[in-house]
Design brief:
Length: about 475
Amino acid sequence: MRSNIQHHIIFIGILFLTGNVLFAQSYTFPEYTSYQLENGLTINLMEQKEVPLISISALIPAGAVNDDTKPGIAYLTATALKHGTTNYSKEDIDKTLDFLGAEINTYAGKEFAGLEAGFISKDLDKVMPILAEIMTQPGFDAEELQKEKDRHLAGLERKKEQPRAVIGQFFDQLIYSDHQYGTITDGNLSSVQSITREDIREFFNEHYHPSKAVISIVGDFDLEAMKERMENYFGSWKGKEAESTSVDGLPELAESNQVLLVNKDDATETTFYIGGRGISRNNPDYLGIMVVNTFFGGRFTSMLNDELRVNSGLTYGARSRFDTMKEGGSFYISTFTATETTEAAMDKAIEVLKKLHDQGISEQDLTSARNYVKGQFPPRFETSGQLAGLLSEMFWYGFDESFINNFNTNVDQMTTEKVKEIISIYFPKDHLKIVMIGKATEIEGIAAKYGEVSKVEIESIIQ
């Protein structure tokens, strides 16, 4: 969440740089209280009184996996939550938040819808009534909804000119096909145009409910007084009881390389993903995978970036990433290159992946990766907003504070032998799934080199 409030930094770790070695002092997750209201809503409260700020993170099981036949409805519903409520018009909300220097943002992702808020603690009783009504009593103003639809449709139109903005959506569809995880969160032109205010209200009534939701609050407040506020503001929230927050079983992947060639006639470069199925967020090897991926493609001095950018000059940058969700995820190498160097860049990326499998990681490189991960970790959870978000993620993905408390120990326990095991299990090198966006007439022959090719136009992702 971006905010005009200067977030405070809490002490959760001290870094020391000695020579070329980075040490991170051990730290423990700050104490917090977690409980449920009678309606099933989970509440996490963490007092941090160093500075007068409060941050809130809420997750609701109302993401794009529930879009069914109307892709984009989860996105529009989440956005429209701020278009007025029972007692506050959109203008009232905007003016009040602007005057207070506060922020409330709403969004929807693949699996859940979310709300993030940040404000000065003295304004708690001015902001909280608005926030509670946004979550539980939205009005979905028809005029504002049409404006939002128009803005969103214009944004979708622009995407056909932005390969890097849509390649992830094409990759998800290649990996997941008709599964819920293949749903495009933004929707498409035809589906978004057809969505009505009644559709959004129905989606809200169906999926915005307390029994599988969480609200996490971190900052300068009194614990018992906040508990009373939460009961007053959310205790009467009923909603429809959720049947399940799980998704269907993941589809089987073809046991062969598959290439999706996305044609963009005016392209002068090729943007590509190479990868396969990944991991869920609560995978027990999560930290080890992150250490290995840091070395392979997760930092500027990674294997991938060294080979594709520094040593060969084939691209301005290359990376690898694990996108994790509740029930699964994906892994991919991503980069772009000039049309005439498409084959060389793709060959090099696959070569580096094979090298990772064949050679593993040396003890020296593993030490470097471990230190990098430990050094990057504390700054990710310094602010009240980051801690509130982490508390909500812990609830959603099913991991606990041991992820924080044992972080350094678990990272340090990574050995070269464990690295080999992780590479073998989690970094796909066979049956690769590849998406290429570029000028098909010039790269179609190259695409055929890497597997069975299917071809679509870039406009297909928004139609």
